[in-house]
Design a protein that fits this description.
Number of domains: 1
Helix content: 25-40%
Shape: globular
Oligomer: single chain
CATH superfamily: Protein of unknown function UPF0759
Structural class: alpha/beta
Strand order of the largest sheet: 1-2-11-10-9-8-7-4-3
CATH class: Alpha Beta
Number of strands: 11
CATH architecture: Alpha-Beta Barrel
């Protein structure tokens, strides 16, 4: 199953494509339909409140898990937005979230290497069948990390000229420290892996990582370093999906059984990635919804959450139902994640999409 929704499929020989007290949420909206405010979004969520609590069995395929890409964003933890009164601590919030969804994505690991203790607490606070997808640390995908966020032992081992930098890249590190970063990332997630609750590692590559032999090699190296953990790759550079490169990209991922992250996001921009629908790993398919807020997607100097401040309408969600079903027919498990995590927008859309999948499956 492959190609954009309106595009052709690849040749048959290729892969199958198939906060209690937090910051105030601005009342000003730019789009009454797609940014109606948390109160209207909550009313929509109440109509489908239990729809996503359990994984959905596809009629002719594997399980579909629906969740969000955050449970801790300050706009989400603000009073009266998603969590009910009295659900104020980290433990209470995760337990409440895990009672409504079977899947969540951890984005904090992109900024700071995970700690075993934190992963152990996640296991303790969630049901045994609850799954965490985890975003790879910035240094693992060619992106910069704030030096101060590295563990103390790593900071102290840095060469003086590197330690003085406010931000650094993996290429700035001596080989032994680069290896230590990979080891720290894997070790921090071991409690999740041991409990069977680690879904996949999301390797999200930045806009400057274009389609090239060297970058394909880097992706394979990352997958091998993380093995036997499952990995999924999200590209932010459209060169991977040009007419010249699309088949090669899908075949490359399929050859290494690396899941392509299918995305829904703003279109018509230089960095826009098309909504390719393709299953390149028999174990896992991943879909991430970023919203379609084109006016802020490439903007600088704004809070990150503003890029994802978009509430999908029913028609937009319905368009993805056959694509998700086709993915679920080819993968043992399909993860659908709402990354439009402004306030309760992601949670509302996750519930609505799960309800639509259940409705269609009847």
């Amino acid at each position: 199953m492959a190609g954009s929704p309106a595009g052709p499929r690849p040749p048959a020989a290729g892969p199958k494509v198939v906060p209690a007290a937090g910051p105030r949420i601005r009342a000003v909206t730019l789009d009454p339909l797609h940014d109606p405010g948390p109160e209207l979004a909550r009313r929509r969520a109440e109509a489908v409140a239990d729809a996503a609590a359990e994984p959905i069995q596809a009629p002719h395929g594997g399980l579909i898990r629906v969740g969000t890409a955050s449970w801790t964003d300050p706009t989400m933890t603000a009073a009266g937005v998603f969590y009910p009164p009295g659900v104020d601590s980290a433990e209470e919030r995760l337990a409440y979230y895990a009672g409504r969804f079977p899947l969540v994505e951890v984005d904090a690991t992109y900024y700071a290497l995970p700690a075993r203790r934190t992963a152990s607490l996640w296991v303790e606070r969630t049901p045994p069948d609850f799954v965490f997808d985890v975003k790879a640390h910035a240094l693992l995908t060619g992106q910069p990390s704030e030096t101060r966020r590295l563990p103390k032992a790593l900071r102290e081992a840095l060469p003086r000229e590197v330690a003085a930098k406010p931000r650094l890249y993996a290429k700035d590190l001596p080989a032994d420290l680069r290896e230590a970063v990979w080891e720290a990332f894997r070790d921090g997630l071991e409690p999740l892996a041991a409990a069977g609750q680690l879904g996949a590692i999301l390797l999200q590559y930045p806009r400057w990582v274009h389609a090239s032999p060297a970058n394909r090699d880097a992706i394979v190296e990352a997958a091998e370093r993380l093995s036997p953990l499952r990995v999924a790759v999200e590209f932010r550079n459209p060169s991977w999906f040009t007419e010249r490169n699309l088949e090669r990209t899908l075949r490359f991922l399929a050859d290494h059984e690396i899941a392509l992250v299918m995305v829904d996001g703003p279109q018509g921009l230089r960095s826009s990635v098309p909504p390719i629908v393709a299953v390149t790993s028999p174990a896992l398919a991943v879909v991430r919804f970023h919203g379609r807020r084109a006016d802020t997607w490439e903007a600088r100097g704004i809070p990150t959450v503003e890029r994802f401040r978009y509430l999908y309408d029913r028609t937009e969600l319905e368009a993805w139902l056959p694509r998700i079903r086709r993915a679920a027919a080819e993968a043992r498990e399909t993860h659908v994640l709402m990354n439009n995590c402004y306030a309760n927008y992601g949670a509302t859309n996750a519930l609505e999409l799960a309800a639509l999948l259940l409705e269609q499956g009847d």
